[in-house]
Design goal:
Elements lengths: L6 E5 L4 E4 L22 E5 L3 H13 L3 E6 L7 H18 L3 E3 L5 H8 L7 H20 L4 E4 L9 H14 L3 E2 L8 H10 L11 H13 L1
Parallel strand pairs: 3-4, 3-6, 4-5, 6-7
Antiparallel strand pairs: 1-2
Helix pairs in contact: 1-2, 1-6, 4-5
The structure holds iron/sulfur cluster.
C-alpha cells in the first residue's frame, strides 16, 4: 500500500500509517431498529400438526416471542386422524417445552355446519381458516396475549394470503396483532426436523373433502 501511494508512513516503530483515501463511517442503527418483533409479547400459536409446528415454534422463539401453543382443528376427519395429529403435537410440545392449550372438544359438527353449501375447495378453506383463527384469537385475548399466528402459514399447500387477511381481521376484532411471516422459508427444515423426531406426517390436508380429493388424485396417477 505504501508503494502504491495509498498510505503515508508516519513512524516505523511502532508502525503508524495514514490512509490517503476517505473511509466511510458505518452507519449505526438506532437501538429501536435492533429490537426483535416479539420482544415483551406473548403469542398464541395455532398449531395444525406436529411437523408444521417444528420450524414455526423455533422461529417465533428466535424472534423474541413468548410462545404458547393452541390446538383447535375441528376440520380434521375422521376422529382417529384428529387424535393421531393431536397426540403428535402433544409429544413434540413436551419435547420442546411448549405450554399448550387444548380446545376441550372435537367439534366436527361446527366445521360441517359452517361449510355446508360451500364445499368447493377454496370457498370451504376460507371458512375453515376463519373458524380456527377466530377461536385462537378468542383464547389469545382471554390469556392476555398480545399476538396470534398459525402454523398454517408454513405450508405451500395453503392459501397464505387468505390466511393473512383472515388472521388480521380476527385479530383486529379482539384488539390483537396478527403476526405474519413467510414461514415457508422453513419448509425444508420442517421436513428434516419432523423426520429426525419421527413425527407423524399426514397425507391429506384434514377435512373429509381433502381426503377424498387426495384419494381421487392418487387413483388417477
Ligand atoms: S382442504 Fe384443508 S384448509 Fe381447506 S377446508 Fe379442508 S382442511 Fe380446511
Amino acid at each position: 500500500m505504501l508503494a502504491q501511494g495509498k498510505v503515508t508512513l508516519i513512524a516505523q516503530d511502532p508502525l503508524t500509517i495514514r490512509l490517503q483515501y476517505p473511509v466511510a463511517e458505518r452507519a449505526v442503527r438506532p437501538v429501536e431498529e435492533c429490537r426483535l418483533p416479539g420482544e415483551n409479547k406473548a403469542i398464541l400459536l395455532h398449531i395444525c400438526c406436529g411437523p408444521c409446528g417444528t420450524y414455526t415454534i423455533q422461529r417465533l422463539r428466535e424472534q423474541g416471542f413468548e410462545v404458547r401453543g393452541f390446538w383447535y382443528n375441528p376440520n380434521i376427519h375422521p376422529y382417529d386422524e384428529h387424535e393421531r395429529r393431536r397426540a403428535c403435537v402433544e409429544d413434540y410440545a413436551r419435547e420442546v417445552g411448549l405450554p399448550m392449550t387444548w380446545w376441550r372438544e372435537y367439534e366436527d359438527d361446527a366445521y360441517f355446519s359452517a361449510v355446508r353449501g360451500h364445499e368447493a375447495f377454496g370457498e370451504r378453506c376460507a371458512i375453515c381458516y376463519r373458524l380456527r383463527l377466530e377461536r385462537t384469537a378468542q383464547v389469545a385475548a382471554m390469556q392476555g396475549c398480545q399476538a396470534l399466528t398459525t402454523t398454517l402459514l408454513i405450508s405451500p399447500y395453503q392459501n397464505q394470503e387468505m390466511i393473512r387477511q383472515i388472521g388480521s381481521d380476527v385479530a383486529q376484532e379482539h384488539d390483537l396483532e396478527f403476526y405474519f411471516e413467510n414461514f415457508r422459508r422453513g419448509w425444508a427444515e420442517r421436513g428434516r426436523t419432523a423426520r429426525q423426531h419421527g413425527l407423524y406426517q399426514q397425507r391429506y390436508c384434514g377435512c373429509i373433502y381433502s381426503a377424498e380429493e387426495t384419494r381421487a388424485q392418487n387413483a388417477s396417477r
